[in-house]
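User: My instructor asked us to take a sequence, write out its structure as C-alpha cells, and then describe one feature of it. I'm not sure where to start. Here is the sequence I was given:
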Amino acid sequence: MEFTHKRGKRRDDSGLGSVLDVLLANARLVLGVSGAAVLAIATLAVKRLIDRATSPRDEGDPKAEQKTLEESWQDLALIKATQKPPKRQRREDLSEPLLPPAPPEPRACPAPPEPPQVESIPQHCLTLQEKLLLHHSSLLAVHEAQAAFGRQLARSICAELQNFLRNKCPELPFGSLFLSGPLLDGLGALAADHVHFMLPVVLDAALWSLIPGEDTVVRNPRYWMIKRRALEYFPRGCSPWDKFLVGRYLSSNALNETLHKLLVASINWPAIGSLLGSLIRPVVASRELRLEVKHEQVELSIALFPVVEMDGRVLLAAPPQGLVENLWLESFGRAEASKVRELDAGDAGARQRCLRVLNGVCRSHPALHRLSGSPLVHVVLHLSAAGSDWAEGSLAARFQQVLEELVGYLEQGVLPSYFNHKVNLFGELLEEEIEEMGFLLYRAVAEPELLLGEK
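Assistant: Let's start with the prediction itself. The C-alpha cells for your sequence are:
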C-alpha cells in the first residue's frame, strides 16, 4: 500500500511536473527570459506547498508541524518577494519624451483657522461736495454732441412750422419763432429732450393794454389780461387779432384752439418728418400745443407757446384750468436764465451747476416734480441777494442751504417771486402736495444723500 501510494504520488508528481514544464516553456516564449524566471520561482514555491500538504507527517516528530509551518511561511514570503515582471517596452513608446519625475507630494498640513470676516471699508469716503460733483457729471450733464444735434433738429422743425404759419395764416402777424426752455437756458438740461417754441403775437400798443392780475376776476398777480381798447375809434376788425376776442379781452384759449387745429389737422408732419429723418406726431389729447419727435439719435418733446411782450412783461398763452379763458401767464424764464448767468459770471459761481443737480433731484422724485424749474431758480436768486458765497468750493453748503430754504417756504406755503414779490410761486400747490414735499425735504436736510439715491 505504501509503495502504491508513493508511486501514485510520484506519478502524480511526474504528471504535474510535465504540465509545469509545458507552462514554463510557453511562458518563456510569451514573457521572455526574465518573466519566465519569475514565474518559475513562484511555481516552485507553490509546488512545494502542495507537496507538504499531500505528504504524510511523521507523527513521532514534535517539530515536524512547526517545521512545516515555518517552511510554508518561508515559501509564502518567497512568493511575496517576487516582483511583477517589468512591462515590455513597445517600439512606439521609444519616441515619446521622458516625463520628469513627479515631485514628492507635500505633506498635508492642517489649514490655519480663517480670520473672522470684517466688512470692507471704502478706501475713500466721498464728501457731499464730491458726491454732488460726481452726480452732476455722471447723471445730469448733457452730452454736448447730443445737445447740439437736438438743437439743430429743433431749429429745423421750427423753420418748417414758421413757413407753414406764414403760408397758411398770412393775415396774422406772428413774429419769428425762437427756441427756449431747458435745452437752451442751461439751468435744467437734464437731457436733450425738452424744447419750447415761442411764437410771438405782435400787438399794436395803441389797440391793446395789459390788466394786472390782481385787478382781474381771479385776483392772482401771476395771470394777466390783455384788453382791447379804443373800440370807439378803432372798431372790431381793425386788428387782425380781433377774431380771438372774448368780450373785450384777447382770449389765450381761443388762440390755442386755433393753433391746435392747425397742428393736428393741417400740417403734413409725416412729410416733414421724412425730410428730417424723424417721426413727428402732434399730441392730440393735450390741452397744450405739443409735438413728440423721435429720431435715432435723440427724442424731443416740443411745446408751442404763443407769447406777448408788452410793457416789459412776457405773457404766455397758458391759462389755468377752469372757466376763465382770457388769462395770460407771466413768464420769468428769460429773466431767470439771464440773471443766473450774470451772477455766475460776476463771481465765478456754481449756481447753474447747483440748479442742474436740484432739477435732477426733483425730476427723479415724483413728489418733487412741482418744485423743478422756476421755484428752484427763485430760491437760488433770493440766497444770492442775501450775499451767500456761491464759489464752486461751496457747492455742498449752498445745496443744503437751498433745501433748508425750501422747507421754510413750504412751511409758510409762500415762495415770492424774485422779480415780483406779489407773485406766490406756491400759490397753485395743494395742501397735500406741500406736506409731502416738506416731509421729504425735511429728512433730506439731515441726509442729503437721500435725494441722490445713495441711501
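For the description part of your assignment, you could build on this observation: Residues 1-14, 62-70, 76-121 have pLDDT under 50 and may be disordered. Try explaining in your own words what that tells you about the chain.
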